[in-house]
């Protein structure tokens, strides 16, 4: 029995992992797969891949590309969610800021440098024509840190996935002043090089199992009600999220897609340099 550790954010995107683990689908194939939640997001998972705390991570595309360029010994195997991620731009309930334009010189709360909340703040600044070199950041760790920073005034705005933060908008903790979709597929599967080299067949088995689940995920009976209950969301919000979310069809990621993403990331000043996209891809 091979032990493998997989990690991802504790959000609705990753519920297929819960289903397949609950059904012991990996165990039946001789793989002892263990899931870890990473509420700190992609920056936290990139660190875990580097130190071997996880073997496989479901990470934001922009975060892992940047970290592999910066020396993370991992590779991207495939897209996990191919639709964009909708990043809500939030301020505190009593904030003086009313629009995205008001935030040009404000302090943005981020989970950590290299995380999606950091990189998408840069994308948002670029989209609005701001000087990205003058962005001010406050590292807050996770969504609770974002709540605390906006409530105390240590930071002025916080970007996090639209539907995950919707309950905080509904209960008056946050006000959402706008959204910023990722200009690329949002989540990919990244695997440590050591695991790819020594256990490619087992990694392929894991991917086959999860891809089979995601291909029929929206057809699961009452999946909208199940997700709404588990993640404390309004049913209509989950239904909207399901309608705009598309998982990968199991195809490996291509060099062309990663080259296009790197070009955009370079234009957005999210990365300082590009590398051969083939060096980002792991082959099974």
TrEMBL record:
Chief location bin: periplasm
SUPFAM superfamilies per the UniProt record, alphabetical: Periplasmic binding protein-like II
Keywords tagged on the record: Signal
A matching Pfam family: PBP2_Ca3427_like
Cellular localization per UniProt: Periplasm
Top-level taxon of the source organism: Bacteria
InterPro entries associated with the record: Ca3427-like_PBP2
Domain Ca3427-like PBP: 87-179
Family per record: Belongs to the bacterial solute-binding protein SsuA/TauA family.
Protein name: Substrate-binding domain-containing protein
Lineage, opening ranks: Bacteria, Pseudomonadati, Bacteroidota, Flavobacteriia, Flavobacteriales
């Amino acid at each position: 029995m091979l032990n493998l550790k997989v990690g991802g954010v504790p959000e609705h995107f990753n519920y297929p992992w819960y289903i397949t683990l609950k059904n012991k689908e990996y165990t039946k194939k001789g793989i002892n797969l263990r899931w870890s939640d990473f509420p700190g997001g992609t920056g936290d998972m990139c660190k875990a891949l580097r130190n071997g705390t996880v073997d496989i991570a479901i990470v934001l595309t922009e975060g892992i590309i940047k970290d592999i360029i910066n020396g993370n010994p991992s590779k991207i195997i495939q897209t996990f969610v191919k639709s964009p991620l909708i990043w809500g731009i939030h301020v505190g309930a009593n904030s003086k800021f009313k629009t995205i334009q008001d935030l040009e010189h404000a302090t943005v709360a981020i989970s950590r440098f290299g995380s999606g909340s950091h990189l998408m703040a840069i994308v948002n600044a670029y989209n609005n024509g701001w000087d990205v070199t003058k962005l001010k950041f406050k590292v807050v760790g996770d969504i609770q840190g974002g709540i605390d920073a906006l409530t105390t005034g240590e930071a002025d705005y916080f970007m996090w996935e639209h539907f995950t933060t919707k309950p905080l908008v509904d209960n008056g903790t946050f006000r959402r002043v706008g959204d910023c979709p990722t200009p690329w597929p949002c989540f990919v599967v990244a695997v440590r090089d050591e695991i790819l080299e020594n256990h490619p067949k087992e990694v392929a088995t894991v991917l086959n199992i999860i891809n089979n689940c995601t291909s029929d995920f929206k057809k699961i009976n009452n999946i909208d009600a199940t997700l709404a209950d588990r993640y404390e969301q309004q049913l209509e919000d989950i239904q909207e999220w399901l309608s705009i979310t598309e998982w990968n069809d199991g195809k490996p990621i291509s060099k062309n897609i990663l080259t296009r993403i790197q070009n955009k990331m370079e234009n957005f000043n999210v990365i300082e340099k590009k590398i051969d996209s083939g060096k980002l891809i792991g082959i099974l």
